[in-house]
Sequence to fold (184 residues):
Amino acid sequence: MLNLKKRKMTTKELTKSSLFIDLIAIGAQIKVPIPYIPFTLQFLFTNLCGLLLGGDVALMCILSYVIMGLIGLPVFTTGGGISYIFSPSFGYLIGFAIGAYFAGKFMENKVYNNKNIFIAGLINIITVYLLGAIYFYLISNFYLGNPSTIKNVLLYCILLPMPADLFLCLVSIPIAKRLRRAIF
Fold:
């Protein structure tokens, strides 16, 4: 469960968090356009954030990134600003934070091996896509007045972009292991 008590982050955690905020913002700019939800490298960096920083720090880190975008810094895939809340893809940003938290919590007290890292990545990706697809459906149908069927949401919000992110789960394994040994 998320520890809601006041928690002071160490200088090392703050430095690592700022690095991941930068990487996530850069990953948002590296995109492959597909209908509705573009493929970006954000998942790679949010997944690594959860794997390497742990659940609590990853959650704070990614929420900081989201807040930066909402106050107007152009760190999201299509810019920034408070109106981004009404973007159909905003649910994925929420999913990045919660998914990284779950991945980080899963890895606590676990052996840092390929199997556990991959399972943590799967937990992360399921969380991201579940929240992203639900948000997309709700905002499209009930706010934007752009009705979308569940079939279309499954196709465009999960089936089309997910294979690339599953590949990024696999890519995360050697990167996370090497980074953990080298600087963490």
User: Anything to note?
Assistant: The radius of gyration is 16 Å. The domain at 12-182 is CATH 1.10.1760.20 (Arp2/3 complex 21 kDa subunit ARPC3).
